[in-house]
Design a protein that fits this description.
Distance between the termini: 96 Å
Order of helices and strands: HEEEHHEHHEEEEHHHHHHHHHH
Largest sheet: 6 strands, mixed
Structural class: alpha+beta
Number of helices: 15
Helix content: 55-70%
Shape: elongated
Radius of gyration: 33 Å
């Protein structure tokens, strides 16, 4: 057989296979994909929190660090793979039964799923979740043939979790576990070097550059993992204090920046303010924290108002004199008045004398 005739025969086989696949098998695979995806979504929904794949922020809102994407291979992609993998030697398209059997036998990624996670350290968590609950998956007709060989090392030296599975002991699928960074990099590499067959004299240097980009992204991913887990190194009291400082900054720094173009006082006296916060009872602290996270921001430095008879007292005159010579007292008055007006401790009325008592207590620490 001459070469031209052989090429045409190969093309005909791939076209016949892809056309049969599109007409007789793809719709079935779409339905099986829905079943498989639902199983893995349920697995993550049930167990993700136990594997630190759900983050809870300060507003108690849960943030999933995972999502699942999926696809069934299209007919044109199958035709390309048949030629690239030289499957035309193994395909038997003589009957519907042999067509289905040989196409399924030669293509283990017709169904593809991906756990897309936030960072690379989450990949191992998802994999461990699957391994720990493998019995539940097998009870739902999911099996894997290569759990022990994961993660794999790709030709570029990077790790990948690529699990080869079967559903109902008949339908093969591939499940990948990737971080967002690694997924974006791999998609770009796939586009540049896998789908693009045109030769380029700069392709070698391009691949080297892409590998360097991959290494940099990998380093960035690992640093972000360290940042995330550095939170675990602090005690609950240290975390509480740090979160307080952040709320203090959010509420009062904009006002100070507008008033005096400087927020250094807030940083210098934040320890005093934290002490001040801790002398309150738990109920008052919760009320204060609500005030600190109000959506309506402060717009100016508020002065404390007093009755006329108080203004005649020696205490008030001395206090006014201290304010004239001490910017810290103005800040302390402003913040104290803001806090006390939100939740008077011990249900006491908000009076000038009470304000002075708390300011003194705060500035003594």
């Amino acid at each position: 057989m001459d070469a031209d005739k052989k090429m045409k025969e190969i093309r005909k086989i791939s076209e016949n296979a892809s056309e049969w696949y599109d007409a007789h098998l793809k719709e079935t695979l779409d339905k099986k994909l829905d079943d498989i995806e639902a199983i893995f979504k349920e697995l993550a929904a049930n167990y993700a929190p136990a594997y630190h794949l759900v983050h809870q922020n300060e507003s108690s809102k849960e943030i999933k660090l995972w999502l699942i994407s999926s696809r069934v291979k299209g007919a044109s992609s199958l035709a390309e793979k048949i030629i690239r993998g030289q499957q035309f030697y193994d395909l038997d398209l003589s009957t519907d039964e042999t067509s289905e059997a040989t196409i399924l036998a030669n293509n283990d990624d017709l169904i593809g799923l991906r756990y897309l996670v936030s960072l690379s350290c989450d990949c191992a968590s998802v994999f461990q979740m699957i391994c720990d609950h493998y019995d539940e998956l097998t009870a739902k007709n999911i099996t894997f043939s290569n759990l022990k060989s994961n993660p794999e090392i790709m030709h570029n030296g990077r790790e990948i979790y690529r699990l080869k599975g079967r559903y109902e002991d008949k339908y093969p699928f591939e499940l990948q576990i990737k971080s967002k960074i690694d997924s974006a990099w791999a998609d770009e590499e796939h586009m540049l070097f896998y789908k693009e067959s045109r030769y380029s004299y700069i392709q070698k240097s391009q691949r080297a550059i892409m590998n360097q980009v991959g290494e940099l992204l990998d380093q960035a991913d690992k640093l972000m993992c360290l940042i995330r887990h550095s939170h675990d190194e602090y005690t609950p009291d240290e975390i509480r204090e740090s979160e307080f400082y952040q709320k203090l900054e959010n509420r009062y720094a904009p006002v100070l920046r507008e008033a005096i173009s400087n927020t250094i006082l807030l940083k210098q006296y934040r320890t005093a303010f934290y002490y001040y916060f801790n002398v309150w009872g738990e109920k008052s602290r919760k009320s204060f924290l609500r005030r600190m996270t109000e959506e309506d921001p402060l717009t100016s430095i508020n002065s404390f108002t007093v009755d006329e008879d108080v203004k005649k007292s020696l205490l008030w005159k001395n206090y006014e004199a201290m304010k004239e010579s001490c910017l810290e007292f103005i800040l302390a008055e402003h913040i104290s008045g803001d806090w006390l007006s939100s939740t008077p401790p011990l249900n006491e009325p908000l009076t000038f004398r009470r304000l002075c008592a708390y300011i003194v207590k705060m500035t003594e620490c």
